[in-house]
Amino acid sequence: MRSRFYTKTGLHRFLSSLEASAGDFVTVYVTPASFSDYIDSLTLARKYDTHLAEIKEAVKTGVVINGAGKYGTGAAMFWSGLAKHIVLPAFPIARNEISVGKFDASVLYEVLDRKYVIGVVLVTWGWYAIGMFDGNNLVECKIGTGYIHKEHRKGGRSQKRFARRTEEQKKDFLRRVSNRINERLGGYLPAHIFFGGNKLILKPLIQESRYLQTRIDIISPRILNVRYANREALVGSLAEINKSLVFTL
Asked: What is the rounded CA–CA span in Å between residue 206 and residue 178?
């Protein structure tokens, strides 16, 4: 099974090419909450037995299971004798739906073409970048730093003293980032929030931030792979957020 990331524009072109191809399609949409159970319970007319068996087998492969867990957006499946694709969209599928015959990308187009308000929080130890996007526009932004001692390697009491100081600096830094999140994002009601940077920071940051605690259900499980938490990374994160993952059998 091959996989490929698509930008929003690229996925539109991909779907258009499928729509133009000949074939009797089985189209399946499944929400994040019912991903595996819904597929297991699917039944179709006997003429589609082969397609249905292939779909059920494909969604149980390791790469699809891992991808679905990472994205947490459900899936769209387009299956014919020649075209066999599973799409993990950038944003969640809203309803379970199945159709046979004509290729049907309508539900996926709804997901792709909706205008989203998105919060982004990028944090590494010592750096943070917080932003809110309204569609493609960055409408709120805060970049900041916090000094944290590097690891002390001499050993003995000195090492322990530096370790305690570093832990206190990390706690102070998380409090500072949490306060900035509460201040800058508190007036917004985003559809989704994405975190990027050091993934080990996310849990203690949620514990520190009232804003994130009250919106934990919209924090994406997908951790953005960014090395630096700065304005450049923040602006560039939108392209990464809008990427969908397509598996082809």
From this structure: 8
